[in-house]
Amino acid sequence: MILYPAIDIKDGKCVRLLRGNMDEETIFNNSPENQAETFEKLGCEWIHIVDLNGALDGIPVNHNSVKKIVSKVKVPIQLGGGIRTIETIEYWIEQGLKRIILGTAATNNPELVKLATKEFPGKIAVGIDAKDGYVSTNGWTRTSSIKSLELAKQLEGIGVSHIIYTDIDKDGALNGPNIEQTETLAESISIPVIASGGISSLTDLKNLKKSSTPLNGVISGR
């Protein structure tokens, strides 16, 4: 199970939000690229980046910060937030990103996911952000009518490399992950699942590692 340290970028700074609320931020580092270097020096195998402004606006916003991170570290990077066109996906892959995460686009434009997985095999993941079992979109500001498990099953067989499952009510709260829902999702599909949200201790990591269905990894931010 891979530990993916998270760098969430808002207004060019490394921050953590509480349950996705853009008004409840804690700034951890004014230099996301320095934070990435720290994670790499500590032995992390991957880095997970989210362009928070991009997720809300629907287009990439923190280009410069992401490109600085790519230039500073050698470990592979996965990126999500505001990526909703094939041109944007191509742009970020050309910049050196190893995995692109589609979130809102996967719900609103499933044909884009199919096209992206065909054009960039092995490089497209889907982020399923759930609130009360339903998929949230647009930077977690809207809740769709699609259940998270339903969306996950729809993604089977089209080439999605990973699913990143986040329980929004757990995210940034440091009160433990939603292991039950994560296990249910992982057991229902063949796509590798990465857990996210609520990680607060080594015990949480150990419990996820003992999951009945092996997880590919876990994302930890705060």
Descriptive overview:
This protein has 222 residues and is α/β, with parallel strands linked by helices. 34% of the residues lie in helices and 31% in strands. Helix 1 (32-41) runs parallel beside helix 3 (63-72). It starts with a strand and ends with a strand. The mean pLDDT is 89.
Write a brief structural summary.
The chain is an alpha/beta fold. It has 9 helices and 12 strands. Helices cover about 35% and strands about 30% of the residues.
Element layout with pairings:
Layout (H helix, E strand, L loop, with lengths): L1 E9 L2 E6 L2 E9 L2 H10 L5 E5 H6 L5 H10 L4 E4 L5 H9 L4 E4 L1 H5 L1 H10 L4 E8 L2 E4 L4 E6 H7 L7 E6 L11 H10 L4 E4 L5 H8 L7 E4 L2
Parallel strand pairs: 1-4, 1-12, 4-5, 5-6, 6-7, 7-10, 10-11, 11-12
Antiparallel strand pairs: 1-2, 2-3, 7-8, 8-9
The total of helices stands at 9
- Main sheet? 8 strands, parallel, barrel
Specify the structural class: alpha/beta
Give the overall pLDDT as a whole number. Answer: 89
Residue share in helix? 25-40%
Gap between N and C termini: 19 Å
In sequence order, what are the helices and strands, one letter per element? EEEHEHHEHEHHEEEHEHEHE
Strand content: 25-35%
Strand order of the largest sheet: 1-4-5-6-7-10-11-12
Q: What value does the Rg take, in angstroms?
A: 16 Å
Keywords:
222 residues; alpha/beta; globular; 12 strands
